[in-house]
Amino acid sequence: MIRCTLVRRALLILFLLVVALGAQPVASRPPAAVSVRVDLARMLTLNGSFVGLGVEDDSNLLWSGPNQAAGARPAADIDTYVSPRLRALSLPFARKFIDVSWFAPTPDGYTWDSPAMRALYANLAVHRASNTQIMLTIWSLPPWLSSGSASAKDTELRPAVAFPDQVHEERWAELTVDLLRHLRGLDGSGLSFTNVAFVGGPNELAGIDAGHLLRPFTLLRARLDEVGLAQVAIFGPDSFVEELLIAHDTPGLDPLLNLYDFHYYAAAPFEAGFLAAADRLAAAVAPTGKQIWLTEFGELTAKNNDWRSLPIFAIGGMNHGLAALAVWNVQDQIYNTTNMPEWGLWGVYDSGYALKPAYYAWQMMSAHLPTGATVYGHSCDREQCPTLRLAILGGIGGALAVIAYNLADTPLQLSLDLGDLPVRRSLGRYTLDPAAPLPSGLSVPREDGPALADGVLRDSLPPGALVVYAIDRPVYCASERASSVRYPCGFAAP
């Protein structure tokens, strides 16, 4: 009896010990550790430097009748909400929807002073002040530019067409160039939006095939050259993966394009398919010497109500050759259909322009990447580091940005060896932690980043967190402002 009691007591003690050990909180366990080394010999952006992370910004459409009927107060809302957020995003580029009915509703001349055009000018002025380059997609045309049925809608939800018929292709090229001349002040308008640097269209080919772009783009390219706008870049096909491949294989089209762009939407889990598509496009486009930009993307289920898809797109795109990525889109407004108000980085109207979680993820990435950066390879791809996504960007004068996304539900100890990558000091750390409240302001706040020890960045990433490490943007010397290539005060040209 005594022996049985002792056995039972021993078993009970063992059971309690096992339970106690299993009940230890996750935080008490040592974090997983990942060691990564940058590979300066691998520069990942296809055919040039990395441009940056942008947006589709059509916030000027708050002036449209459908948006005002839905509750927009455009002047007040843009000044109070939209413009400060565009400045906080610090965008290198933005893509825009252009409705030709704003300035050419009939074949009888231009209406440059229409309310829609005045709204466009105000929006472009905000972007110009932020040094944001603008891409114009000629998206919607008035019915007079085609004899076909006007089955589309313009921004006032009136009948419209997406692309001219053959008879009106020359007129389409002419009015597109006249718009660019007007915005840049070449027609005596007094405007100076030289940041309008790219043009394309129609959006997603609108039911035509890439071969239909040949004559209009030939006319457009010739007209741009004639009027002194040869520097304006034509992009295309402004559509999806397969359409880009078809455009690439269309005889005569490649010489007309300055860059290729595509759109990508998918429901999670989408990473493997997205990266395979990027690799496929890069292999096709590499021999042309041209870049690939992702000018629309989104996750189909949560859209921008959840931020976690954005770093997967951004980091994956950078590491697989894309030169620029633009998220669709800045706010939940009405476009030329009634089913679009759901993709914004913030709400509108009765939401009080509430910021969505995705806004903060995009802001902390877009605002802190070096200009004209080099994206470097490293030793931590998806197979080697299944719970970490990492992008490393270096810029002029020792600029640096590192985007690190911890996919695990436990902390991750990162050790990143930057090798001989020149790094200017004053490293900031920007963190989006799913366990913490969202920031109260328009920017993810800066914390002091970890000091580099012998070129190694060491830090602990919270579970599920997105962290950006970035060198503070420099203040340029007065003498350097006049230079076409500027370097921070105290740094010589390499």
Estimated radius of gyration: 26 Å
Domains counted in the coordinates: how many?
2
- What is the terminal separation in angstroms? 86 Å
Beta content? 15-25%
Determine the structural class based on helices, strands and strand pairing.
alpha/beta
CATH topology of the largest domain: TIM Barrel
Taken in chain order, the helices and strands follow as HEEHHEHEEEHEHEHEHEHEHEEEEEEEEH
> What helical percentage do the residues reach?
25-40%
Per DSSP E runs of 2 or more residues, the count of β-strands stands at 19
Per DSSP, the total helix count is 11
| Neighbour order of strands in the largest sheet | 17-16-19-14-13-12-1-15-18
Q: Provide the low-confidence segments as ranges.
A: 1-7, 10-28, 476-494
CATH arch. level architecture of the largest domain: Alpha-Beta Barrel
CATH superfamily of the largest domain: Glycosidases
Residue-averaged pLDDT, rounded?
A: 91
Major β-sheet annotation = 9 strands, mixed
Shape: globular
CATH class of the largest domain: Alpha Beta
